[in-house]
Specification:
- The chain has 22 helices and 17 strands.
- It is of the alpha/beta class.
- The protein has three domains: 172 residues, no CATH class; 352 residues, Alkaline Phosphatase, subunit A, CATH 3.40.720.10; 127 residues, no CATH class.
- The chain has an eight-stranded mixed β-sheet with strand order 6-5-7-1-8-10-2-11, sandwiched between helices. It has a four-stranded antiparallel β-sheet with strand order 13-14-15-16, covered by helices on one side. A three-stranded mixed β-sheet has the order 9-3-12.
- The chain is elongated.
- It starts with a helix and ends in a 5-residue tail after the last helix.
């Protein structure tokens, strides 16, 4: 019995030694690989590099520790007579752990980008040299460790082994903690601007959604002013966010869609205004389309690329290995998609903690409700049965998600599933926003901070035959957004029903700060909502305007000609018109202007303008309109043009004036789209 226990002890000691060597060595290999590969990692500021390395260490260590345990148990079973650390059985441990290390090391070397041809002689030579280096490190490190262990008494060996196991466990269990601040310095108020990508306002429980998707935002909305009828300037991310931070509509800031455009330096952003007034400015963005090449970082002292931190999980070998192992048992131990907001909140909290004694403006942009509707575990089955087909290669309800956009007619069950998964994402994002707000409170900053919450646009989710995505239509599902402003002393609360635009966010913030006399090159389109909030004034509010992000020709009249139960009606309408769904990299400026759906909203009335290609027309196109009473028909089902001719005539005149004024005189800088930008656009479904 004693010999058996000795064998067990020696196997465990050898397993712990080689596991520690593997964890340390492979973490070093992974970090070196990220440096050699260049790209996003080398561009990160020092604090974000440290955060990325901490994620690499956590992502590698516990999977390697788990595999180390499995290797040790395997050897314990097949080689039960391990009576001395000098036994040759040690080389069995060395061999198996070294094989694991070499596989990971070779994979990392291939992904550095240093060897375009991995079957080249140079790659094989470097692989061989690194294999010899790895063997030397494993062999010499283990010999040194075993010599130390041999000179220690048995109880000390167990003590050291216990410490090693606890250390490995702490790597897995560690979560960053943020200390409570006792004071907040600086004069004037801080501003925290929170935006969520692709968030429909009617999918928040405080707005009446039937699912409990937003418990934290429900409470937050009760503490501020909630705008019942807020709309985005466009149904596409980049132009809409540009409208938020410049207070201009797309025709004036120049960004027409998500493709090949950067925000021009001629625009004065809200961050530049705050920095001019001596504020520390920071942005944490989760959407990969907001890379620095898009120039949305102008005016920010710190620009945190949260999409990079959240994307690390696809490149950390420990997590990749665990994913492959878990497939063998038919259940994923680690789900790739989802969970991005966790890193976004972490980075935002770190910014707040670092600058808690300064005056700051901080913009945080989340993305989790966006395609591919893949909430992390714990949220993926909150409102529906967990999807069994989540895999690294196929990580949504199916790879057919994009087919649903313009091809397949999904069943009602699929549409319900899409909505349930989307709501799971919304709930998860709500939790992460709640975590950020709790951290703000823990730092005693809530009473000194103006907090504004909104979204860049909505999401289709089956409305008006548009099953997946956004950007093409201007129905409420795509452009109605949440907007809540929480004032530091809670001086203003309540619900406001007047229609407002997200171009009003920036002037409202500046008015609250007392900077409403700022001079903007070329002027701005937005107006401050403070008179509406403080005094209930409505007479000065302009009509709200919005437009589609993608240029295309669309005739809703043809829906009447579509046979239900056949193809997707939206696909059929497009096919009949031979529509070219091109993005800005190919579409001309004229197409960007003429083939945009547009809408104007005044009081409770909303008029939608549809441009339709028509070769028989002298102008090459014809127009079609829909008029809705938003007070009784928020889902836009009943076109009232025939019964409301005066309203139609007034709003039609405003759209015609808008189209006439949109001459393309202001346009964003057209940039060369690099490989990283293309991959980001493809990952988000913005291009095919």
């Amino acid at each position: 019995m004693s010999r058996f226990l000795t064998s067990v002890k020696n196997h465990l000691l050898a397993g712990v030694v080689f596991t520690i060597i593997s964890v340390v060595y492979l973490n070093v290999v992974t970090v070196v690989k990220f440096y050699l590969a260049g790209g996003d990692f080398t561009r990160q500021p020092a604090t974000d590099k440290v955060y990325a390395i901490s994620q690499i260490v956590k992502g590698n260590s516990w999977p390697f520790a788990l595999v180390g345990l499995l290797i040790t148990l395997f050897l314990l079973i097949v080689l039960p007579r391990f009576h001395s650390l000098r036994s040759k059985i040690v080389y069995s441990h060395l061999g198996l752990f070294l094989i694991l290390g070499l596989i990971i090391q070779t994979h990392q070397l291939a992904n550095t980008g240093l060897f375009p041809q991995t079957k080249s002689l140079a790659f094989y030579v470097v692989t061989l040299i690194l294999a010899l280096v790895a063997f030397g490190i494993y062999h010499l490190s283990s010999r040194a460790a075993f010599l130390i262990l041999e000179k220690t008494n048995p109880s000390s060996k167990l003590y050291l082994m216990g410490i090693a196991i606890v250390a490995i466990a702490l790597v897995f269990l560690f979560k960053g903690q943020f200390s409570r601040a006792t004071t907040s310095g600086g004069e004037g108020y801080n501003v925290l601007l929170l935006t969520v990508d692709t968030l429909r306002k009617d999918h928040l429980s405080y707005d009446g959604h039937f699912r409990p998707t937003s418990p934290y935002l429900d409470e937050f909305s009760q503490e501020g002013v909630s705008f019942k009828n807020a709309y985005s300037a466009t149904s596409h991310t980049l132009p809409s966010l540009a409208s938020i931070i410049t207070a201009k509509y797309p025709m004036h800031h120049g960004v027409r869609n998500n493709a090949a455009y950067a925000l021009a330096d001629t625009n004065l952003t809200i961050a530049e205004v705050f920095r001019k007034h001596g504020y520390i400015t920071g942005a944490i963005v989760e959407n990969g389309a907001l890379r620095p090449s898009r120039n949305y970082h102008q005016g920010f002292d710190y620009y945190g690329e949260a999409y990079y931190a959240s994307g690390l999980k696809y490149d950390i070998p420990g997590l990749i290995m665990l994913n492959k192992i878990s497939k063998l048992v038919g259940e994923k131990l680690f789900i790739y998609p989802g969970g991005e907001a966790y890193h976004t909140s972490n980075m935002a909290i770190r910014f707040l903690k670092k600058n808690k004694r300064e005056r700051f403006f901080c913009w945080v942009h989340y993305i989790d409700p966006h395609l591919p509707y893949a909430p992390p575990r714990g949220y993926d089955n909150k409102f529906c049965e967990r999807e069994k087909r989540f895999t690294a290669e196929n990580f949504t309800i199916s790879k057919d998600l994009r087919k649903y956009e313009l091809n397949l007619p999904p069943s009602r069950e699929v549409v319900r599933k899409l909505n349930a998964l989307y709501d799971g994402d919304v709930l998860y994002n709500d939790r992460q926003i709640g975590r950020l707000l709790e951290a703000l409170e823990d730092m005693n900053l809530t009473s000194k901070t103006l907090i504004v919450f909104s979204s860049d646009h909505g999401e289709s989710l089956g409305d008006h035959y548009y099953y997946v995505g956004h950007g093409r239509l201007v129905y409420n599902a795509n452009i109605a957004v949440p907007l809540v402003i929480r004032f530091p002393d809670l001086r203003h609360k309540g619900i406001i029903k007047e229609p407002v635009s997200n171009v009003n966010i920036m002037p409202t913030i500046l008015d609250f700060m007392g900077w409403n006399q700022e001079v903007f090159p070329g002027g701005i389109d937005g107006v401050s909502l403070m008179p509406l909030i403080r005094e209930g004034r409505r007479d000065y509010l302009p009509v709200v305007r919005s437009q589609s992000g993608i240029p295309w020709s669309f005739d809703p009249k043809l829906f009447d000609q579509v046979e239900r139960g056949g193809g997707n009606p939206l696909k059929t309408v497009a096919a009949k018109l031979a529509v070219d769904f091109r993005y800005g990299m190919e579409a001309s400026l004229q197409e960007q202007i003429e083939l945009k759906l547009r809408t104007v909203i005044k009081d409770n009335w909303k008029l939608i303008y549809f441009p339709v290609k028509d070769s028989a027309s002298p102008t090459g196109r014809r127009t079609y309109y829909e008029l809705y009473d938003m007070s009784s028909d928020w889902e836009e089902r009943y076109n009232l043009i025939d019964s409301q001719p005066e309203v139609f005539r007034e709003l039609k005149g405003k759209i015609e004036a808008w189209c006439a004024a949109d001459t393309g005189s202001v346009f964003a800088e057209v940039i060369e789209v690099g490989q990283e930008d293309l991959e980001a656009l493809k990952a988000l479904g913005y291009i095919q």
